[in-house]
Amino acid sequence: MFEGHDTVSTSLTMALYLIGRHPKVQKKIQEELHRIFGNDRDRYMTSEDLQQLEYLSCVMKESQRLLTTVPVIGRDLKEDTRIGGIDVPKGTYVSLALDLLHRDPNQFPEPEKFDPDRFLPSNSEGRHNFAFIPFSAGHRNCIGQKFASMEQKVVLATLLRKVEIKSSQKIDETRIVGELVLRPLDGVNVTFTRIL
């Protein structure tokens, strides 16, 4: 239950915050939305529409990379494993800091920069398959990953077809805390302005 709503709402909050901080990114999203939906801001989205939202998908991934909703995952090793040249015995509980993994400068140059273009297919070539795993990976990955991604696309596309978002709050002013999920302690300040 927790993973089904708290993570999605936090991911959406952080994506809206970052979009509101980057007007050029917002403009590119709205251009993509206009190309797909034209001037019809109320048309229901189809699964075909969602598949065409390529740049919005990049924005979501970059938001999840920079502000990973579940920053740490743990695994109980089922067999002896070698990690980074160190032998780790079966039965050891291992924690993986996804927020650090997602900031590996070898995989993501300028890791603190919000740059959705890094997830364009041409810019993702050669990146390790497990360099970006906001939903975990392998047979223990998030069962709701596809639904959560679809849900986020629908919400963001619906909002950004109707409003412009602005956030003047700096990242260090958001007071982000890591509890079960990474979240802003006092929320984020964003302004929505209806598109006329």
Task: Give a structural overview.
The protein is built from 7 helices and 8 strands. By secondary structure, it is α+β, with helices and mostly antiparallel strands. It has a two-stranded antiparallel ribbon. Strands 2-3 form a two-stranded antiparallel ribbon. It has a two-stranded antiparallel ribbon with strand order 5-8. The relative contact order is 0.20.
Secondary structure elements and pairings:
Elements: H1 2-21, H2 23-37, H3 47-52, H4 54-66, E1 72-76, E2 81-83, E3 86-88, E4 93-97, H5 98-101, H6 121-124, H7 145-160, E5 163-166, E6 176-178, E7 182-184, E8 191-194
Antiparallel strand pairs: 1-4, 2-3, 5-8, 6-7
Organism: Holothuria leucospilota
Binding site for heme: 142
Keywords: Endoplasmic reticulum, Heme, Iron, Membrane, Metal-binding, Monooxygenase, Oxidoreductase
List its traits.
membrane, iron, 15% strand, two-stranded antiparallel sheet, metal-binding, globular, alpha+beta, endoplasmic reticulum
Side by side, the strands of the main sheet go 1-4
Give Rg in angstroms.
Answer: 18 Å
Helices and strands, in order, run as HHHHEEEEHHHEEEE
- How helical, in percent, are the residues? 25-40%
- Secondary-structure-based class equals alpha+beta
| Ends distance | 38 Å
Strand content: 15-25%
Shape: globular
The largest sheet, given as strand count, sense and whether it forms a barrel, is:
2 strands, antiparallel
Unreliable segments (pLDDT under 50, ≥5 consecutive)? none
Summarize the structure in short.
The protein has helices at 2-21, 23-37, 47-52, 54-66, 98-101, 121-124, 145-160; strands at 72-76, 81-83, 86-88, 93-97, 163-166, 176-178, 182-184, 191-194. It has 196 residues and is α+β, with helices and mostly antiparallel strands.
